[in-house]
Amino acid sequence: MPRTSRQDVRPRGGRRASPAQRLQVGLLLIAVVLSFFAARLLQLQGLDPRSYADMATAKDVVEITLPAARGDILDRNGVALADSVNGRMIIADPFRTADQAPELATLLADELDLDYFTTLEKLRKEGSRYQYVARRVPAATARGVLDKVREAGFVGISADDDPIRDYPAGEVAANLVGFMGTDEPLGGFEVAFNGLLSGREGSSRYTQGNGYRVPLAENSMVAPVDGDDLRTTIDRDLQWYTQKVLSETVENYRAESGVAVVQDARTGELLAVADAPTFDANEPLDSHPDNLGSRAFSDVYEPGSVQKVLTAAALVDAGKVTARTRLRVPGQLQRQDRPINDWFPHGVLRMTMAGVIAQSSNIGTVLAADQMSKRELWRYLRAFGLGRRTDVGVRGESRGLLTAPAAMTSQNKDRIAFGQSLSVNAVQMTAAINTIANGGVRVSPSLVQGSATTDDGRQVGTDHTTRERVVSPEAARQTMLMMERVVDAEAGVAPRAQVPGYRVAGKTGTAQRADEECGCYDGSLSLSFGGFAPADDPRFTVYVVIHAPGVDGGGGSVGGPAFSKIMARALSHYGVPPTGKRPNRVPVEW
């Protein structure tokens, strides 16, 4: 058999590729695969990155707002006038609730008093994994709703913390504190200091898959910053009592409204600012809109005869009169085209300046004020704080009206001297009377302890108190002597304003009310009484105004008793002892 050489042997099935050729083919395949991935990466990162990021976020990433705890509003002793209590937000995952949305929306709308169609829309929100269904739900209510959701077999509904604003004292200081809506402040300090109280919301962002948080995926959180507390100068107990007395007075005299203010004579701090009618801050919508603000700051009116003590103090300071200055007071005084009358008919009276104040004589006041020019009178009244806002941090405060000297006629000046043809708010007038109590130095009123910044950028509080001398200590003392005779049972018109055991200095006020629409008097009255005690060492100033009473009376008979009760409580509450001295007997006639 012939031999075959090794070179002649061939593998069956064709020629085998060399290693170099196989390597080239492999590298080509790898290049193709890498090119595919490179093209995809370019598409994702270069051509349309935002659309793909948005798709990923919409599908898998959940972002939650973490509410900040709102700061408390406190009285001067740290007692809460407004705070936050446990509440819950009801949350839906539309990815899980969409299929059962109609039935679930019906249940939630019924249980939480929600709009059905708005709720249905949230339960079906495409591309969302997180929708607020209800905010600020009481914790007990939220638990009951979640139980019913589970019992009915629904899924995709959960709850999270969402504090609810609460007003523990209800009506007490509601006119100052204000109230909250669902997501925003709607009145009072809640609005004026919202930036301070609200803090900053936080956020949580995480990736979710099939309704569960993915452990190793995106998971970040920015913690909320809770709001700061606002400590006021208000004394909750004294505020409650002041509101009680004021409300009873308004009701007993069938009046339209009333205000009462209590001020610390030395520091200017407002211890009580009461309005009647008022409202319950927990249920503000149950009250008329006119009752939701503070009339003590927003309502302006003619102060009437309380103004006479400011005129008297100015005259004494200018060296024009003393408490013993003698005046002949006729029964009527002809001025320009109108006569000036007193509240009581009389012939010619021989009154001292103290008697003019004690008997509240318009004519006597005008005769004394004849010694002062229009500019001088305006300058003093302006220094007392009339015609300018107190700026204590209450929104909507009116500045009142004090006619400038250039526009003031002789007739204006006469009427301004005894409290008409000008307007004030109650806190302005309280601070003016308190200037006399404080030895002639006007100390600016405060409603906030320390310092706080309002949302419109004003710094307010006791740290920013100002002091301005308006009249001399002797002028203030002489005016006090005149005011003390007002409550004297023999000499004055307001014996019912006395506080047993204490010396009291005060002044009545009765003024016609102006109608803004017609620019005329509407036939109703504002009755007031303002004063301080102890007269010879003043500790508190109290001012009460009753608007449009339906029963006959004057400032002494209507405002006087309310003043007496409020002042007595303030003195007792702060343990102020009587000075032990007898009331002065400066003569009221000659």
Automatic annotation (TrEMBL):
Residues 66-183 form the Penicillin-binding protein dimerisation domain. It holds the Pfam family Transpeptidase. The keyword Oxidoreductase does not apply. It is found in: Membrane. InterPro entries: Beta-lactam/transpept, Beta-lactam/transpept-like, PBP_dimer, PBP_dimer_sf, PCN-bd_Tpept. Residues 258-567 form the Penicillin-binding protein transpeptidase domain. It comes from Nocardioides malaquae. This is Penicillin-binding protein 2. Its main location: membrane. PANTHER family: PEPTIDOGLYCAN D,D-TRANSPEPTIDASE, PEPTIDOGLYCAN D,D-TRANSPEPTIDASE FTSI. Keywords: Membrane. Residues 448-467 are annotated as: Disordered. Belongs to the transpeptidase family.
